[in-house]
Specification:
This protein is an all-alpha fold. The chain has helices spanning about 10-20, 20-45, 45-65, 75-110, 115, 120-130, 135-145, 150-160, 160-185, 185-195. It has 2 domains: about 10-100, Orthogonal Bundle (Rna Polymerase Sigma Factor, Chain: A), CATH 1.10.1740.10; about 110-195, Winged helix-like DNA-binding domain superfamily/Winged helix DNA-binding domain (Arc Repressor Mutant, subunit A). Helix 1 crosses helix 2 (about 20-45) and helix 3 (about 45-65) crosses helix 4.
Length: about 200
């Protein structure tokens, strides 16, 4: 039996016509460094580049038997690699944009009691208002504005869904705002409270 020396064309034929994993192993060995360098150039992160290479080789292994012809492996494989890199970058960008919009929304969500405390003359009014709130409102406002916790962290600590955190914060802000407006607009009531 004559042994055939493995080269790219032979490896491709093994993959296309015989679904022989030895052919694919040869192609991976031939191109893994090049693939890693290309992924690294796109992603600028060694760990992500390694993960994307592994994922892309898996995708290629699954897809190659469906091809009827393939003259050169790497140009075909590079399209898979590039798309996998772009998908990862897109997911990361979406995640970054989401976190950014969450932070912006949290900033816009209404009056921040901590900002009001900055003014010395308002401190007593703010403290009085906080003390008059229901415990769950005072608790959630403190977590959000004193401890600067994110919605997700509050959700875990209080063991409530994220949506409940948002609605409870909304209610707490509304209740605080009503009390604050009442006391800030009525200095007599505030002086009465201090006696």
């Amino acid at each position: 039996m004559r042994l055939i020396e493995m080269n790219e064309q032979h490896a491709i034929q093994l993959c296309l016509h015989h679904r022989d994993p030895r052919g694919f192993e040869f192609l991976v060995q031939q191109y893994r460094k090049e693939a890693f360098m290309h992924a690294l150039a796109l992603l600028h992160d060694r760990e992500d580049a390694a993960d994307v290479c592994q994922e892309s080789f898996c995708k290629a292994f699954a897809a190659i038997p469906a091809l009827t012809q393939l003259d050169h492996f790497y140009p075909w494989f590079y399209r898979i690699l590039r798309n996998t890199c772009l998908n990862l970058l897109s997911r990361k960008q979406t995640s970054t944009n989401y976190r950014k919009s969450e932070a912006e929304r949290e900033d816009r969500d209404g009056p921040n009691p901590v900002d009001l405390v900055e003014k010395r003359e308002e401190r007593a009014v703010v403290e009085k208002c906080l003390l008059q709130l229901k415990l769950e409102h005072r608790e959630i406002l403190t977590m959000k504005y004193t401890q600067n916790l994110k919605y997700a962290d509050i959700s875990v600590i209080l063991d409530i869904p994220r949506g409940t955190v948002m609605s409870r914060l909304y209610s707490a802000r509304q209740a605080f705002q009503e009390l604050y407006t009442e006391h800030a607009g009525n200095p007599e009531a505030d002086r009465q409270y201090r006696k």
